[in-house]
Design goal:
This protein is of the alpha+beta class. The protein has two helices and five strands, in the order H-H-E-E-E-E-E. The chain has a domain of 82 residues.
Length: 121
């Protein structure tokens, strides 16, 4: 008795392993970058919160709080140079700093970041 064999595509387990390797590499690089990216967004949110309470806080108090925040999330020292400008009906808070992202194979990339927040008083 002769049994008919079904024709199979040439795709084997290596195709699946390659896809898993690519996904693992993306997850690894993403985990290296995620802390620095989240620190930037958290710093910007802290600035926005300070603008919300600007009517009850002095500029010196806001500077102290933001500088302490940059230290707690391990931002570069240049991020502590926070500027606050109050006009007649508006407050603006901003900072500028360079963040170095380290990637695998000793590859580094420097980004110039400018978090800011603005709100009417």
């Amino acid at each position: 008795m002769v049994t008919a064999r079904r024709a199979r595509r040439g795709v084997g387990r290596l195709g699946c392993l390659f896809q898993l390797a690519v996904i693992a590499a993306i997850a690894y690089v993403g985990s290296m970058v995620a802390d620095d990216v989240m620190a930037y967004y958290r710093f910007r949110d802290a600035m926005k919160q300070e603008t919300r309470f600007a009517e009850t806080r002095t500029d010196a108090e806001m500077l102290r709080r933001l500088r302490a925040f940059t230290d707690s999330v391990r931002l570069p020292l240049a991020a502590q140079d926070v500027k606050i400008v109050r006009d007649e009906n508006r407050i603006r808070i901003w900072a500028e700093y360079d963040q170095e992202l380290r990637l695998p194979f000793n590859y580094t990339r420097v980004f110039h970041l400018k978090p800011s927040a603005e709100r009417p008083l």
